[in-house]
Amino acid sequence: MLKKSLWLGLLLIAGAAYALQKAGPLRGAWAPEQVASGVYVIHGPTELPSPSNQGFMNNPAFIISDDGVVVVDPGGSVQIGEMVLARIEAITDKPVIAVFNSHIHGDHWLGNQAIRAKYPEAPIYGHERVGPRVIAGAGTEWVQMMLSMTEKATAGTEVVGPDHPVKDGDEIAIGGDTYVVMNNDKAHTDTDIMVLVKERGVMFLGDNAGNGRILRLEGGSFAGNIEALESAMAMGASVFVPGHGKTGGQEVAQTYRDYLQTVYGAAQQGVDEGLADFEIRPVLLPKLEAWQAWSGFDIELGKHINGAFLEAEAAAF
Length: 317
Hints:
Number of strands: 12
Radius of gyration: 19 Å
Strand content: 15-25%
Largest sheet: 7 strands, mixed
CATH class: Alpha Beta
CATH topology: Metallo-beta-lactamase, Chain A
Number of helices: 8
Oligomer: single chain
Number of domains: 1
Shape: globular
Structural class: alpha/beta
C-alpha cells in the first residue's frame, strides 16, 4: 500500500496536469435539506452530466458534529465542491474535519479539490482500492469525461482523490460520532463503501441505490449489490441517503433492492430455461412497471439484462 505522503503527492501531480482555465460557479440555489439531527443533504439532479446541470447529479451531504463538519461525496467538479462549502458556511462556521468518498466514480468525489484547497489537513476517506486506481488513470479519465459531457462547464477541476484508505468493518470516531464502513467486495462497483453514522441513525448508501434513478452496474454485481442493500437495511438506520435521488426511510434501499432482484431473478430463470438474453426482456418488462418512469431506465435496462444474464450464467457453472 502506498504511504499517505506519496499517494497524496501523486494525486496532486496528476491533477495539475489536467488543469484548465476555471469555468464559472454552479448555477442554482440548491438548498440543503436536513434529513436528521445535524445531517444535511443537497439533492442534485438525477439526469446525466450535461451543460445545463454543469455536471451536478449526485447528493453531496454533510454532518455537523461537535468538532466540525464531515462531508460525504462533495460532487463531480471543483465548482460543485465550492457550492457545498458555501452551503455549509451558511449554516455553521465550524471547519470541515473529514470527507468520505463512496466509490471510484468521479461524479461523487471530484469536488474534493475544493475541500482540500480550504482545509488541507482534513482526511479524505475512501475504499482502499480507490486511491491506486485514481493514480493509475481513473481520476484523469473522469476529469476528461465530465469536461466532455458538460462542454467544459467543469473546467478547472483537478484530481484530488481519497488519501485515507478504509475497508469493511472499520469504525472511525469523528467529532463524537461513529462512522461504520461497510463493503462486501463487489456491489455497484468493487470500490463501494456505505457509511453508517451510528449515533444519527443515518445510512449513506452511495450508488448501491438510487431513488428515481436507475444506476449503471458495469463492473459490479447484481448479487453483491442485493447483498449490500440487505446488509444496510439490517443495521438499524432510520434514514437512508441514496447516491442519486431523494433521501427517505428503509424503503429507499428496499425499492432499489427489489429492482435488482427482479432483473437478476428474470436472468436466472432465463438461464435455467435456456433462453438468450434478448428473449428475457419481453418477459421482464411488465414486472418493472414501478421503475419505468425513473431517470436512466431506458438507458440502463438493456445493459442490466445483459449483465445480469452473464452473471447468472457464470453462477450456474
